[in-house]
């Protein structure tokens, strides 16, 4: 019993020391400026010299050094306490001293950032969130869609298309509704009469544009995946920002209204035709990201 009690005390003592040491030192960045970085070794030695001045023992300074920045700018990072940081900050050679913060990956986690988590905890959950947009139909007015993208594959256990849906997937160049459309991508239409009035006949001789809902530009596929993209695990941008790519409402259905073309131009005449049909088709939400060059005109 006594031995057990003693070792418990010993443990408590060790953990107290541990807590104290991690609560009082942080990684700070000490910035010295852009000059004096011709010789990396001299610069590093100088950093060590500065850091040593706030320690009693050189070994402790060595232990605390995290990085010496000596190539493109001069500075260093070190594990020090607030007193040491303040001392360094007061030195003439030092431009600024700030704590190194922990940042998070962006871009594949934007919806989590907004609180729209895929697996919300009990206190975050709202009925709207838990369904992830199930059975909501989003009409996407843009440059069309690349239907093979994984973001437009069906989510597991999707219900049949609502009976109220009156839209359709039209066939067109390089766009076969039988293979392109599914329970997720339930509509595809395109409008180009207005565009051709202004720009002449669409050039589809090379594969740079398609007379169909297929997206040659990429903008529409991008915006559609932001809004309603299904969950795609281990997505990354050439290895960067790896995570689950997903739209804000990954279980929502998508109806594509292609009103903009490869050159990024969209005719208001075509846009209005799409509004006209989309509302009649039964979309619940319309997403449209285009506009005039500033100054912006009212949308009506
Ligand atoms: C910071 O560390 C120095 C050197 O070890 C020490 O003298 C000083 O008391 C410490 N200050 C705080 C606030 O812990
Ligand atoms: C596309 O090809 C056809 C037949 O070769 C030609 O008549 C037409 O002018 C071409 N269109 C454009 C816009 O180049």
UniProtKB/TrEMBL annotation:
Biased composition (Basic and acidic residues): 208-217
Protein name as catalogued: Uncharacterized protein
Family per similarity comment: Belongs to the peptidase S8 family.
Top-rank taxon: Eukaryota
Classification via InterPro entries: Peptidase_S8/S53_dom (IPR000209), Peptidase_S8/S53_dom_sf (IPR036852), S8pro/Inhibitor_I9 (IPR010259), S8pro/Inhibitor_I9_sf (IPR037045), SBT (IPR045051)
A biological-process GO annotation: proteolysis
Pfam family, one: Inhibitor_I9
Key words, A-Z: Hydrolase, Protease, Serine protease, Signal
Region of interest (Disordered), residue spans: 202-222
Residues annotated as signal peptide: 1-24
Keyword Protease in record: yes
Highest classification ranks of the organism: Eukaryota, Viridiplantae, Streptophyta, Embryophyta, Tracheophyta
């Amino acid at each position: 019993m006594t031995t057990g009690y003693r070792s418990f005390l010993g443990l408590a003592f060790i953990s107290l020391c541990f807590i104290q040491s991690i609560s009082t030192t942080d990684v700070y960045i000490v910035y010295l400026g852009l000059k004096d970085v011709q010789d990396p070794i001299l610069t590093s030695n100088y950093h060590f010299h500065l850091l040593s001045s706030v320690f009693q023992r050189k070994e402790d300074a060595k232990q605390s050094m995290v990085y010496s920045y000596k190539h493109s700018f001069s500075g260093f990072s070190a594990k020090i306490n607030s007193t040491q940081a303040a001392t360094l900050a007061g030195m003439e050679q030092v431009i600024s001293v700030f704590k190194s913060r922990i940042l998070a990956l962006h871009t594949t986690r934007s919806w989590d950032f907004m609180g729209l988590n895929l697996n919300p905890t009990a206190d975050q959950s709202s009925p709207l969130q838990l369904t992830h947009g199930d059975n909501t139909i989003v009409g996407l007015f843009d440059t069309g869609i690349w239907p093979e993208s994984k973001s437009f594959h069906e989510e597991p256990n999707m219900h049949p298309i609502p009976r109220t849906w009156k839209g359709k997937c039209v066939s067109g160049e390089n766009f076969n509704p039988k293979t392109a459309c599914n329970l997720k991508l339930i509509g595809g239409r395109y409008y180009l009469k207005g565009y051709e009035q202004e720009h002449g006949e669409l050039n589809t001789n090379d594969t740079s544009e398609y007379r169909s809902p297929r997206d040659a530009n990429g903008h529409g596929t991008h915006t559609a995946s932001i809004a309603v993209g299904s969950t795609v695990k281990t997505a990354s941008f050439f290895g960067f920002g790896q995570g689950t790519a997903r739209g804000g409402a990954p279980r929502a259905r998508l109806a594509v209204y292609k009103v903009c073309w490869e050159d990024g131009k969209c005719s208001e005449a075509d846009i209005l035709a799409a509004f006209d049909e989309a509302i009649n088709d039964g979309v619940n939400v319309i997403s449209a990201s285009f506009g005039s060059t500033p100054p912006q005109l009212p949308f009506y």
